[in-house]
Amino acid sequence: MKSLKELTERSVSVKDYLAHTTGPFREIVDSRLKTYKLKADIVGELKKYADKLFVIVFSAEWCLKDCAPNIPVLAMLAENVGLNIRVFGGIVRDRDNPKEKWKVPPSPLEVKDFKIEKVPTTIVFDLKGKELGRVIEEPRPNKTLEEEILELARRA
Asked: What pLDDT does 98 receive?
């Protein structure tokens, strides 16, 4: 497995990722940033873990149903909680090779390293690089993304 330093070097901050999005994806992002309200009690508790966690997420701009509404929530968490959230973007399906889900490159090699099947996949680590868990596509029913991340953070 790659070190957290290597993962940081090969990815971009969630803020930078969103800053470079365009088209329909960007429209959904902008709407979500204006309308979504983080749960204050969860934010308060997550702040206790912010310096103990490292988060990566795999995303694609063609993923309007799950990536576009969830990546902005991660950006809000990074800003309001201080979580280090990094994005591996540019994921592309491999339509020419039925044995491979993602085309590498342009998709990052990490899609194979982490056996990514769906996007977004959000992976939470402790600072030693131990995977604490994943949120795949969207939070479970009746859960918010911040609640899911807090649940994983408690494993640290």
From this structure: 84
